[in-house]
Design a protein that fits this description.
single chain, about 260 residues, alpha+beta, 6-stranded mixed beta sheet, DNA-binding
Length: about 260
DNA sequence: ATGCCGTGGAAACCACGA
């Protein structure tokens, strides 16, 4: 079973690429981020015609997350991250699919740092860590997949020295990610490729993809009940080279049944 | 060192992203 996270950077602009990629790779479960579409403008029929059940939480212009499941309908558990009724951003959705609990997240970017956007990112991270603490010890298999907007270590960025003051790489953010992992989560890509240079995002400008000036910021975390089923993990980096590509590439795990 | 590009929505530019 293949589970993928893919920040599409606009479901409207990306729909042709998304449908092509679904057809070529037939993933079983897909977590999408940055729909940038209001709830009523999500292309539900195109996704269903491609063979996927889907739930989504849209928002006008920004954010937005979705969970797709091939041949079945995800059963929604929640569509907001608990802990702040004032938070109006569509950044989290959670469902039960094929015996897994799937959390799909789009963590705030946080730039510029310091500032109110960075404060929001740190608060969101704290809430997420609290929620993850409830999930990690769940006897059911759980996967938390999404755009974390966190560069975990120096190995995960092409020039770490240029990113030390950035909201994706600042010490507080890396420490928060470490706290999350230390709850007992497995960072799938790093577990199977401890030394490799593997990026999931490349800027649109300065020929970042051509130079491989990338970041690893899209992650798939497995709880202990699921970690033993991890058999492969990688990035479909070729998709980043397609015409009209998102700046992120699909990032995936293969799980034994 | 830098949104230099891309998207969406409103308005013919701007906010936002990482």
């Amino acid at each position: 079973m293949k589970v993928v996270t893919y920040n599409v950077n606009g479901i409207g602009a990306r729909l042709p690429n998304l449908l092509r990629w679904l057809g070529e790779t037939t993933p079983d479960i897909v977590c999408l981020q940055e729909l940038k579409a209001p709830q009523e403008k999500f292309p539900e029929s195109a996704i269903r015609d491609a063979g996927y059940g889907v739930i989504w939480h849209g928002q006008k212009s920004w954010n937005g997350v979705a969970i797709l499941a091939r041949g079945t309908d995800p059963v929604e558990i929640r569509r907001v991250l608990p802990g702040d009724p004032e938070d109006s951003h569509s950044r989290y959705i959670e469902a039960s699919v094929r015996g897994l609990i799937v959390g799909c997240l789009y963590l705030p970017n946080g730039n510029p740092a310091p500032g109110p956007k960075y404060d929001y990112k740190l608060r969101w991270l704290d809430r997420f860590i609290q929620h993850a603490a409830q999930l990690v010890s769940n006897p059911s298999p759980v996967i938390l997949a999404g755009d974390y907007n966190v560069i975990p270590t120096e190995r995960d960025v092409y020039k770490p020295e240029r990113w030390v003051d950035d909201a994706l790489f600042r010490v507080e953010v890396r420490e928060a990610f470490t706290r999350l992992i230390q709850q007992g989560w497995t960072d799938s890509i790093r577990k199977l490729h401890p030394q490799a240079t593997l990026y999931t995002f490349w800027d649109y400008f300065r020929n970042a993809y051509g130079r491989d000036a990338g970041l690893r910021i899209d992650h798939l975390l497995l709880n202990p009940a699921l970690a033993g089923r991890l058999v492969a993990a990688n990035v479909d980096r070729g998709v980043r080279g397609w015409e009209k590509a998102s700046d992120h590439a699909p990032t995936w795990v293969e799980l034994s049944e």
